[in-house]
Structure formats: structure tokens, C-alpha cells
Amino acid sequence: MKQKNIVILGSTGSIGEQALQIVREHPDRFNVLGISCNSSWQKLLEQVREFHPRYALVANEQYADELDKRMPSETELLVGYEQLLDLATLDDADVILNSLVGYSGFEPTIEALKAGKKVALANKESLVVGGEIINELIKDDRSQLIPVDSEHSAMLQCLVGEPLDKIEKLVITASGGPFRTWSKKQMRDITVDDALDHPNWSMGAKITIDSATMMNKGLEIIEAHWMFDMPLDKIEAVVHPQSVIHSVVTFTDGSSKAQMGPPTMKVPILYALTYPERVALDAPRLDWQSAFDLTFEPVDYDRFPCLRLAIEAIEEGGLAPAILNAANEIAVERFLNKEITYIDIPRVIESCLDQLNNSGSVTLESLKNIDQQARKLALTV
Ligand SMILES: NC(=O)C1=CN([C@@H]2O[C@H](COP(=O)(O)OP(=O)(O)OC[C@H]3O[C@@H](n4cnc5c(N)ncnc54)[C@H](OP(=O)(O)O)[C@@H]3O)[C@@H](O)[C@H]2O)C=CC1
Ligand SMILES: CC(=O)[C@@H](O)[C@H](O)COP(=O)(O)O
Ligand SMILES: [Mn+2]
């Protein structure tokens, strides 16, 4: 079997580390060609020593010297964000797994796709910020972009072999997060620890807060809209607290297909790396002989205004989703730093959406520009 050369952008994060666990289980299938961190240089060095990549990158230049002193001679050290774009476009790479968080993942996605690379996309913010540009890049070969996000992987798995013009609805499931049953009054006192305590998934801090505000589901609706080239009125979210059904596709004959499994990201990561092949995995299975519940509830836009803001932003179009994304990143960071409260997060985002002009044309330059403006504003409102 020919090994696939993979590059893992963000190998020190939650998705990146799980991807390396998969490589550990399948050394015959995957060769790690490149890895990267922002500032977790010690973790990166451990990964270099175990996986012997040809390239290892630290984005934060402050840690370059520490790594340079210790880097084995077989691995070339790359430094800084510009070189991250080189890593995303390596000639020998078969798949680029983009597991960066936030806007930092957007340009690497663009460059990788422009270079004709296959991109396994965990970084949903890429599609939120620049879905229109990404869709133009992949219009001749949509298989260049494979979802890693569990819901989108589920939808892809339901869609295999199906005629795309027979899709009636994409139904994205949401756990509802840790505050699914909390009243608005209780939400006033939410702490950072409360918000980081996701009921079903262990993930990086930013996406965990997004799940707690349900912004994550808003971002995922936008992600599905671009990923599957589907109109917004054919996409809906439903709360499913067990996170066992990862999403559902309903077809025009009334039949619905759901993809199920215990909540683990290893399944969608492996599927994205091997698609359209299915490869054995040592992961938990559902136990069909013991009774378990699968329940559903409508989403509540009143208690979770971030979800409403995300849907309004994509309906508005233009630069609005990029403003939403940047303002959300800053609001989440400020919440994690205890500078604002949980209920301030949607307030900051709405204020940025109201104050900034979203009507310009969507280009790489205008997106970068509005991202910076929104970040600046979100620090002050
Ligand atoms: N975790 C999960 O289960 C899921 C995640 N996703 C999506 O996958 C993406 C990654 O999430 P997750 O793994 O949780 O995130 P983490 O925060 O755990 O990891 C992020 C990775 O990106 C690196 N990074 C952060 N900022 C920068 C930057 N400015 N420049 C270069 N590198 C940077 C980090 O380096 P360092 O370690 O040095 O900080 C780390 O390697 C997100 O878009 C998320 O929404 C989607 C579905 C599930
Ligand atoms: C694992 C994954 O894909 C996350 O995006 C997850 O969906 C978060 O859970 P929520 O459904 O609570 O947003
Ligand atoms: Mn998800």
C-alpha cells in the first residue's frame, strides 16, 4: 500500500493530536510530512521525535530559537505565518489536514486549494469567512475539500452514492452544550469553567465556548451551506443532547439517512484522510443491546442569540460572516480572559455587525481588511 504523505497544520491542538493517534494506529497508511504549532513548541518537539516529519513549523517566532537548538537534523524547522503557507502547499503532500483554529486557518486553506492539494478541513472558520471564494476554487473538483467536522462528515457519509438534486434537507444536530436547560437568569452567572465543561466532547477552548453559546451551530450551518453548495432554506439545526446522531439528510422521497456513533472525532478525521475508502479503527462502538435514548428538541434562538446572529450574517452575505467570525473570536478570547461575561459575547458580535459596513465585494484583500477592523472594534465594545 502506498503511504499517504500528510501535513497536519495545528498538530498540537485537539484535532491535530487525534490525527497523530490515527497515524500511530496506521503507520503503513500515513507518513507525516509536516506538522505545525503556534507556540506549544515542547509538544511539537515531542511530535518531531516520534513521527520524524521532514518539516516542523512554529508560527510564533518567539519560540524559534528554542526549537532550532533541539531540532533533529532530518527535520527542517520553518518559522512564521508566511512559511505556514509554504507548508500548506508542499509538492509531496497528498493531504493537508487543516486543524488550525479561527481565521489563522483561512489563508492556508486558500493556498492549499490553489496549489491543487486535497484539504481535509477541520477549520470551519475558513468556510465561514470565505466560502464564496473557496467554492470558486473547487468548482471543477469538489472532492478537493473533505469535511472533518463531525456533522459535515456525517452528512458526507449519508450523501455517498446519492443524487445531490434529490436532497430535501440537511439536518445538523447540536448537543445544546452545557447550558441547554439553563434559564436566561441562570445564564447571567455563567463562569469560564461552566462554559468549558462540554457534556459530550473534549475539544480546544475556542470551539468549546462556541458550543456553549451555540455559535458553533451557526458556524456549522454556514459551513454546510458552502461545503455542500446547499441553499440556506434546505439546512436546519436540531438539538440532540446525546450527540450519537451526528447529522441527518432527508431526501425528496421522504427517506432520511442518519450517521451515528459514539462521540469521537477519530472517525471523521480518519474518514477525511482516507475518503472514499473506509478503514478499520479501534474506537468505541454503540452497544445496541443496552437501552439508550435518542431525543430531539427545537433550537432556542432566544436563549442562544449567537445562533440567530450567525444565520442573519449569512443571509446578509457580503462581508457580514467575516465580521461575525472575527468579532466572535475576540469575544470568546475576552470571555476566556474574564474581561466580559458569557452574555456579553452576542452583544459584542451584534455591535460589530451593526457598526461595520459589510457591503463591499468579497475578495481576499477585503476579507483580511474587514477581519482586522472587526477584531479592533470587538476589543472596545
Ligand atoms: N476539537 C474538536 O473536536 C473539533 C474541532 N473542530 C474545528 O477544528 C479546528 C481546530 O480545533 P481544535 O483542535 O479544537 O483547536 P485547538 O485550539 O486545540 O488547536 C489549534 C491548533 O492551531 C494552532 N494555532 C492556533 N493559533 C494559531 C495561529 N495564529 N497560527 C498558527 N497556528 C495556530 C495551535 O497551536 P498551539 O498548540 O501552539 O496553540 C494548535 O495546534 C477549529 O476550527 C475547530 O472549530 C471541528 C470539530 C471538532
Ligand atoms: C465534535 C464536533 O464536531 C463539534 O463541532 C461538536 O459538534 C460540538 O458540539 P455542539 O453540537 O455542542 O456544538
Ligand atoms: Mn461539529
From TrEMBL:
Q: Which UniProt keywords apply?
A: Isomerase, Isoprene biosynthesis, Magnesium, Manganese, Metal-binding, NADP, Oxidoreductase
This protein's record includes keyword Hydrolase? no
A GO biological process held by the record = isopentenyl diphosphate biosynthetic process, methylerythritol 4-phosphate pathway involved in terpenoid biosynthetic process
Q: Which residues bind Mn(2+)?
A: 149, 151, 220
Annotated GO MF terms? 1-deoxy-D-xylulose-5-phosphate reductoisomerase activity; isomerase activity; manganese ion binding; NADPH binding
Pathway assignment reads: Isoprenoid biosynthesis; isopentenyl diphosphate biosynthesis via DXP pathway; isopentenyl diphosphate from 1-deoxy-D-xylulose 5-phosphate: step 1/6
Positions binding 1-deoxy-D-xylulose 5-phosphate in this chain are 124, 150-151, 175, 198, 211, 216-217, 220
* Record keyword Transport present: no
Give the reactions, separated by semicolons, that this protein catalyses.
Answer: 2-C-methyl-D-erythritol 4-phosphate + NADP(+) = 1-deoxy-D-xylulose 5-phosphate + NADPH + H(+)
Which InterPro entries does this one have?
A: DXP_reductoisomerase (IPR003821), DXP_reductoisomerase_C (IPR013644), DXP_reductoisomerase_N (IPR013512), DXPR_C (IPR026877), DXPR_C_sf (IPR036169), NAD(P)-bd_dom_sf (IPR036291)
Q: Which cofactor does it need?
A: Mg(2+); Mn(2+)
Q: What the protein does?
A: Catalyzes the NADPH-dependent rearrangement and reduction of 1-deoxy-D-xylulose-5-phosphate (DXP) to 2-C-methyl-D-erythritol 4-phosphate (MEP).
- Sorted alphabetically, which PANTHER family does this protein's record hold? 1-DEOXY-D-XYLULOSE 5-PHOSPHATE REDUCTOISOMERASE, 1-DEOXY-D-XYLULOSE 5-PHOSPHATE REDUCTOISOMERASE, CHLOROPLASTIC
Tell me the protein's name: 1-deoxy-D-xylulose 5-phosphate reductoisomerase
